[in-house]
Structures are given as C-alpha cells and as structure tokens.
Design brief:
By secondary structure, the protein is of the alpha+beta class.
Length: 185
C-alpha cells in the first residue's frame, strides 16, 4: 500500500469513528452549558415528556454562582396570562438532543406532576424578597459557624500546645532528677 493510500485509509477510519461518536452523543451531557442556550428552553413534565408546560424565563444563582432555581413561565396562552414559577435545583434535569440540522435542543424536565406544578411558588417580588432574606441569613449563619469553628480550633490548639509544653517540662525535670540521682550514687 502506498503512503498516500495509507493516509487516506487512516483519515477515512478516523472520520468514521468521529461520526459514530457524534451519533452516540445525541443525549450525552455537554459538560458546560451556556445560560443563553437554556433561557427559553422548553419545559416538560418527566411523566409527560411530550406535553410542554412552559419555558425557562430566568436562572437564579446563589453567592457561590451555583444554580439554585429556574423561573419557568407556565400557562401562557397567545403570549398572555402566563405564571412564573420557581423550580428549585433538584426538581428538574436538563437534557440535550442533537437535531438533524446540527443544532442542539435543550429540554428541562420537571420531576413533578401537573398537580404538584400548581403548588410551586410564584416568582414575584414577595417571593424574591423572602428568598433573598433567607439566603442572606443562611450566609450569615454559615459565616458565624465558620468563625466559631475557627475560634474553637484555635482554642483547642492553644490548649494542646500548653499541655504539650507542660508535659515536656515535666519529662525534662524527671529525666534531670533521674540523672542527678544516678550521679549521686
């Protein structure tokens, strides 16, 4: 086989493998997602995956920049009258699917029934203010807990140092006295 033919055979094999890998990754996680791609993603219930219940309106982040909730606009008819619901992390999953045109479709799947969806909190100013206050209090409690843990650790280390120092002094004195006693005999 000539060098040129071998190169073409390897290229064809590699191309076939990459196409096979791409075909297998239709539903695979991407690893990194753009908020722009997820905003306006269609939202479905896990137990009714073909029944669209709304779309992602907003993504809520905490102090650590972790996604804590999605705001889902649901119940909209002709662009009027939709409710914005808060869906906390752990109550939804994100699926991706490669379309035939090469585009990627993102779907948010809610782990809820239609009845449970009715009980989700409405995203409004009252909810926002309460959520901010709860989050701020949790953050302050965490900071206070960390400070208290640091102080407790520091006090424990100081006590351990003092105990070690006292025990070392006693061991020194005992060894000195034992050596003095042996010298006197």
């Amino acid at each position: 086989m000539t060098k040129h033919a071998l190169t073409l055979a390897i290229a064809a094999l590699a191309g076939g493998l990459s196409l096979a890998a791409a075909a297998q990754q239709d539903h695979q996680p991407q690893g990194l997602y753009s908020a722009d791609d997820i905003l306006d993603a269609d939202v479905y219930l896990s137990d009714a995956p073909e029944e669209r219940v709304g779309e992602v309106e907003d993504i809520l982040l905490d102090e650590a920049m972790q996604v804590t909730a999605l705001v889902v606009e649901s119940g909209e008819v002709l662009g009027l009258g939709g409710r914005e619901l808060v869906v906390e992390a752990g109550q939804f999953s994100l699926t991706t699917q490669a379309e035939s045109d090469g585009e990627v479709e993102h779907r948010v799947m809610l782990e809820a029934t239609a009845e449970e969806l009715e009980d989700y909190p409405v995203y409004d100013n009252d909810w926002w203010q309460q959520a901010r206050e709860r989050t701020r209090e949790a953050w302050m409690d965490t900071q206070e807990g960390a400070q208290s843990a640091w102080e407790t650790t520091q006090e424990g280390a100081e006590q351990a140092w003092e105990t070690t120092r006292e025990n070392a002094r006693r061991a020194w004195e005992t060894a000195r006295d034992a050596l003095s006693g042996d010298a006197n005999q």
